[in-house]
Every structure is written in structure tokens, then in C-alpha cells.
Amino acid sequence: MNRIRILPEEISSKIAAGEVIERPSSVVRELIDNGIDADARRIRVRIEAGGRRYIRVTDDGTGMTRDDLLLCIERHATSKISTVSDLYSIHTMGFRGEALASIGAVSRMEIITRTEDQDTGHRLWMQGGKLKSIEPSGCVKGTTVIVRDLFYNVPVRRRFLKSKNTEETHVMETFLRICVPFAHIHFSLETERRLLLNVPSIQDPFQRFSTIFGKEIASLMLKNEIEDGDIKAIAYLGLPDITRSRADRILIYVNRRNVRERGILRTILDIYGKRIGSRRYPYVIVFLEMPPSSVDINIHPTKQEVRFKEPYRVYRLVENILNDALRREFRKVFQVEEEIPKAVSDTKTPYIQSRDLSFSKIPSPSSSYRIIGRLKEMYILWETPDGLVIMDQHAAHERILYERIKEGVKDRIPDKQNLLIPTILEFSSKEALLIKRYMERIRALSIDIEPFGPNTFQLLAVPAILSKVEPRSLIMDLLSILESGKQEEDIMEEIAQKMACHAAIKAGDSIGDMEILRLLEDLLNSRTPTHCPHGRPIIKKITFSDLDRMFNRV
Ligand SMILES: Nc1ncnc2c1ncn2[C@@H]1O[C@H](COP(=O)(O)OP(=O)(O)OP(=O)(O)O)[C@@H](O)[C@H]1O
Ligand SMILES: [Mg+2]
Asked: Which residue minimizes the CA distance to atom 4 of ligand 1?
């Protein structure tokens, strides 16, 4: 007897369904997607018991004829693609022709639908993958799908579902994410208790964000647009001081589809920095428009993962659009016009070195800002046409050095400076062991170190940027990063952050006006001037109208 059997349809369809439908929010996603593809202007969603008991999605789209209604519940039945080449030019949310078949396989499903030019509509019942009945039914134009008792016939999955509140939150999140780019559609979501979300059709994305994220957050968001050949990007972003404890407001859209993409997420997190200890996440929404042939969305049955034909081109675009917006915002605070002549900032020579802030060029004076003082040798106070700006001198310098170190690491040639007299350093035997283990890695960072005795080493050269740094604690920090077992790119990132932190002027270091002006000029030319590499803000402003309010002048 054969050991291998073809699975009966009943089992295979449940397996396939399990890949598409994970929980109530997946049903909601698929049904809303279908409404969007059917050109709906109004989509209503109702869930009961977090969607475990009841989900209903109603749209006013094209609807289906009786024949189509019978077909739509079949696996691989779709009106959206017909040839293999269509797979590379997808303009619709759906294309796999399996959502309704999958939902119908694991629930009691009812579909009511009518097209514009039919007098009467039809109602279809399906249960556990079997068509129960189809009959004429009076109804308005459009489609309503009702899904009862999700996973009633898949007990393992049913048990896996979370509490009503948790499932409701998932549905809400899915709903919001889909809504964002379809401003011309009026969406609503209700439960048995109340109307949870009402998102009217509004063309202005700002108003849509206000509904979704709240007025206050929306009003603080910056907008930017960039084009690179056939790829277009629009971003809405918050400054690094508005953050959340979760990454759930970093939304990435590719051709209006909300997707997860590790590379883009990483690019965004790198820009906003890693706040040590308390991980905080920014508000960033990125819409990418590109030819469907430049992106594969058929990676996973849920259609939420993508693969780009040219991923690095996309990542660079995302990097540019965010940095450009942050830089512009920073310049606005100091009222410096967009273009600063490149010659002003000579990026190769690290003229601001550690606590020795020697500089070679006289910074260009400006009429739009002036130094009014220092506070605790920690903060620099500026007057601008709008009010008072407070700058954290350590964070500012750290940002500049960090970008320079990263440039150096990328070119693999951090400028090296030989020590006039080699420094002898003694370590514990455990530390010495680690140094020997990571000797090559440490040397690659332009730190020339050689064994001198059993637990002693001599230091011959350091990166120029770190020439004034206490080498022992730097090496100890590097060792702990190298020992962390993290991925290579994370390790390099942390090393760059560490080096910048060591080399930057500290709170308590006093610096002169000329150096301060250079610091600002360098910031104005840096890639991300708004915050330090760990995500801490570099400046805070108090406008004259803030002051007027404080003193009850208004
Ligand atoms: N709300 C709707 N209004 C009009 N037609 C619909 C609606 N929902 C489904 N259909 C029709 O039924 C077909 C099957 O829907 P289904 O969601 O199963 O597959 P799909 O959308 O084509 O692909 P995917 O599985 O990727 O969602 C669709 O191609 C469409 O023609
Ligand atoms: Mg679909």
C-alpha cells in the first residue's frame, strides 16, 4: 500500500485557508480589500465579540451577478488577473482568488450582492467550505459579506484566538491601516456596543490623519515628497520628540497597500536613532508609488510582504525623504535658507576634535540667529526671529561626529593618528583574552593595539577623531559591543555611536562663540540635524508666542 496519499479536499482547503485567514482581522482585511477593488465609495464594517462571533462588511461597489457569485467562492477564482504576465502588473488589492474560498472554508458565510443593472440581487450561504444555497434576494447595489463563527470547524485555531478586546484591537488596527491611502472612501467600524471609528471621505490627507491619529499629532507632522525616476515617495513624519512605545505608527505603503518590509523599517529606525534603555518609536508614514513590475507582492498568502526589484534604491529614497524633511525643519528654526555652499563644511577634516575645538575657517555670520548665552556649560541659548532656541551641546556635537565616523567606516579608512608615545594599558586576564580575540576587529577601526605583556597592551594609534579620548574606557566599550552577539550591521552602528559619544564635547566643557557657531553650521549641513544618534533631541524652541502665553500677554 502507498504511504503517500493526496489529501482530501476538505483538509487541503482548511490548510490553504489557514495561510490566508489567521484571525478575525484577516477576514476584515480581505473583505475591505474586495470592497476597494469593487470601486466602493462607502465601506461599513461591523464586528461582534471581537469578530469571533460575527463580522459584516458592506460595500456599495459593483456587486456580482448570480454566476459570478457562484464562482467567487471557488478557489483560484478571480476577476483580477488572467495571465502569468498579469502577476507583474497588479493594480488591485486582491489577485490570488482565494480569500472568499478561504473564509468560506472556516466559517458560516453569507454573501448578499446586486449589480447596478440587475433588478434583484442574490444571497448565497456557505458553511465549512460547502455551498448550502443560493436564492434571489432584494437588496441595494453592492455587496455584503457576513462571516459567523470563525474557525467553528477548526478547533485548534479557535482556541488560539485571543480575548474579545485583543481581537477587536487587531481589527481596529487593520482597519485603520487600510483606510489611510483611500481618502475618497468613507469607512466606518462598529461593534455591538458602539461606533468605534468613522473615517469620512476627505481628500485632504491631513484631515484623515487627524481622524486616525488625533488632531494634535497630525498637526505636528511634516510632509515631504521626492521622486526618483519611476519611483515616487510621499512621507508624513513626526519630529523625534514625538514618540510611542511601539512601532505601530510606522506605516509603509507600496502602491497603496500597507506592507511590512524589514529594510525600510530599518532605514527609518536608523534615522530616528536608538534610544538606549527606553526604546521609543517615531510616527512615520511613507507612501511609495512605483510600477507594479518593480515590486513582487506575491511573497506570502496574506499579501503583506513585498520584494523590491531594486531594494537599495528604495531604501535610499526613504532615507532621503525623511532626512530632507528633518533637515528642512531644523533650518527653518534658524531661518537659514535651503542651500548652504558646500565649501563651508569641509567634511574630510575633523576640525572639531574632541575637547579641542580648533577650527580653520571663520564661520559665516548670520542675521537670523545669535548666541545669547550658555546654561550650566551644557546648553547653548540662541535668539532667532521666532524666539528662544535651546541646544544641547553634547548631543549636537555627537550628531556631527557620528555622521563623520559613519562616513569613515563606510569608506573603510577612518583617519588614523599615531601616538607620539605609545600608551601602555593593563587589563584583567578576562579582558585581555577578549582583546586578543577581537584584535583584528579593533585594528580595523584604526585602533592599533599590540600585546606587550601577559595582560598588557601597547596602543600605537587611534582614529584621528578620537585622539583626545581616554583609550581604556573606549576599548572596554568596544569589547562589550563586540561581545553582544548582535548582527554585524548593528555592531557597526553601535560602535559609531559609542565613538561619537566618547569624542563629543561633554556637558561641563566650556566652548567659545566661534566654536559654537561652527557647531551650528555643521549641524545645518549634517544629514539628520534634529537629534543625536540615540534619538535625543538636539534643540528645543520656545517661541515668542509661547512666552506671551506664559506671561499672560495674550
Ligand atoms: N465586494 C465585492 N464586490 C464585487 N466583487 C467581489 C467582491 N468580493 C469579491 N468579488 C469578486 O470575487 C472574486 C473573488 O474574490 P476573492 O477575494 O476570493 O479573490 P480576489 O480578490 O480576486 O483575490 P485575493 O484572494 O487575493 O483576495 C474577486 O476577484 C471579485 O471578482
Ligand atoms: Mg480579495
From this structure: 63
Determine if the pTM surpasses 0.90.
Answer: no
Q: How far from 186 is each of 64, 191, 199, 230, 484, CA to CA, in Å?
A: 21, 17, 6, 30, 49
Cell 577623531 identifies what position?
465
- Residue 292: name the closest of 93, 95, 90 by CA: 90
Q: Cβ neighbours of residue 298 under 8 Å, at least 6 residues apart?
A: 87, 95, 96
Classify residue 506 as exposed, middle or buried by CB count within 10 Å of its CB (0-12, 13-18, 19+).
middle
* pLDDT per residue as tens digits for the range 153-173: 999 999 999 999 999 999 999
Predicted confidence at residue 516, as pLDDT, reads: 92
Residue 208, SS3 per DSSP:
helix
Predicted confidence (pLDDT) at residue 536 exceeds the cutoff of 60: yes
- Residue type, position 378, single letter: M
539/518 Cα distance (integer angstroms): 16
CA distance 218 to 405: 35
| Residue 353: per-residue pLDDT | 40
Helix %, strand %, coil % for the chain, to 5?
Answer: 40, 25, 35
d(CA 85, CA 95): 12
Four-CA torsion 330, 335, 337, 340, nearest 10 degrees: -70
Centre of ligand 1 to C-alpha 121, Å, is: 17
Residue that the C-alpha cell 510600477 belongs to: 291
pLDDT tens profile 27-41: 999 999 999 999 999
Q: DSSP string covering 313-324, please?
A: HHHHHHHHHHHH
Q: Residues with beta carbon inside 6 Å of ligand 1?
A: 30, 33-35, 38, 59, 61-64, 72, 77-80, 94-101, 143
